[in-house]
Amino acid sequence: MSIKPIFAKQIYDGLKGYELRRKLFPILEGDRIILYETSPVKSITGEFIAGKVKELDSNEVVDLIRRGVLRGCSELDVPYVTGKRKVLVIEVKSPKVFKRPLSLDSIREIIKSFHPPRSYAIIRNEELIRVVERLAYETC
Fold it and tell me: For an engineered disulfide with 95, which of 18, 48, 73, 140 has Cβ 3.0 to 4.6 Å away?
């Protein structure tokens, strides 16, 4: 999942309890979400486990934000979700920062044609998965 560095930091620091996505995609509770931080970081830096996952009407999401139900989401998120039919609300569980980020250049050594996802990508490349696994099990 591509994410801006500021939001990744909030996830890793335990401040952001929910990730909001305008693009709906198949995700289940318990799925492992690997975070690719966008520019200027341009690296896979960590992960979290998806808690409860809901597709909600944008108006409902705005209401939950304003009532403080979605920890880590604020009025700054309202323009992002406003006007969309459905919004994917992903509860963040067990965030983990990798000891060594996997840079875009390093990823491209494994997958020559790799382009960071605009929102998300399902990883099926076994070599990349092994590298991410190795990073995931190193302690910070």
Answer: 48
CATH of the domain at 116: 2.30.130.30
**Is residue 49 within 8 Å of 1, Cβ to Cβ?**
no
Tokens of residue 108, six digits: 């491209």
Number of domains in the chain: 1
Domain encompassing residue 8: 2-137
**Which tens digit of pLDDT belongs to each residue from 31-47?**
999 999 999 999 999 99
For 107-127, give the DSSP string. Answer: HHHHSTT----SS------HH
As given in the structure block, the two tokens for residue 65 are: 């934000």
Instruction: For the chain, give the mean pLDDT.
Output: 89
* Res 138: pLDDT: 62
Q: What confidence score (pLDDT) does residue 137 get?
A: 66
Q: What angle do CA 57, 62, 67 make, to 5 degrees?
A: 125
User: b/e per residue, 23-34, with b = 16+ CB within 10 A?
Assistant: eeeebeeeeebb
Residue written as token pair 């979290």: 48
